[in-house]
Amino acid sequence: MNLAETLGLRPKPYRILTIDGGGVRGIIPVLWIDRLERYLNGPVHAHCDLIAGTSVGAILGCGFAMGMTATQAREMWLNGAHVAFSKPHSMKERGRRIAARAGLMAKYESAGLEALLRSIFRDTRMGDLTPPTLALSYDIQSMQVHVFSSAKEEHKDLRVWEVCRASTAAPLFWDPHLMALDDSGVRHPMADGGMTANNPVVLAISESVSHAKGTGRAVPLENVVVASFGTGAPPEGQTQIPKTIFGHGSMIMRALMTGATGTDHVTARTMLPAKNYWRFQTSISGRLAPLDDIENIDELQAVAMAHLADGADQRLGQLARRLQGKPLDRRWWEGSTEEAVA
Asked: Where is motif GXGXXG found (predicted)?
């Protein structure tokens, strides 16, 4: 906190970190956040008032709120993606892949994903996370997005691994996760939040403002600072017609996620001043777009590093100053455009 904020002359910014969904492509924002932590000289969670994520973004967000550094998160996902999206090693698994192509069952067994999440979060509860953390899922029964919040009393005792399992249950890839959302004990079928809010930025802003109002500390939008990280933007259009039901379904799922991501980005950019909304995203080829192709991880990391060299590194340095309550470098700001910052 700087002197002006200490003396109450300028309110401390309310800082939000959001991470999109994107399967194996989650390695992209991890590398960018790792660079951000170097500028912050510490873990990103120590410079946030709220963290929000969808799907792999929920896993990463909860990991950061549990005390994980970006370096640790990178190692976790490099190993974890191979567990979650493992290649078939038995006749049973090969049979599952064949049935998945015909649309008869999910492509992956849930046991592997659940074992991975349990190994990461163990017995951690939502109420243990600091700062307050949101994980987005989709309630198939009520047909609406469901926001798990560590700040809500009814969610504080929920196990983090189970919340992340609900947030990552992408249709066609995994079966929905049945879980009780409160102490009523009624179990709901939960699916990937990316179906309607792959980019959690707008819901994060809304939740933060409404929660602050509930505590008597309303946060004006002009004081909200958002660091929003994407997982790569595939090219628009479909160059090849899918040959299986799974291919068609996967294409539709990707279209839903891409459309929701872009809409929320435009909305957030409209809601917040340019200096307060920092979106980090890069284009990727159609070949790198699949959510579950672990063979792409090395190339995805190369794409992330290339984006840093193309100007994102400087922006992350300025974002670090913004999160720390320091003024932006005047020469950098005057030489940038609103699109570059937002």
From this structure: 21-26
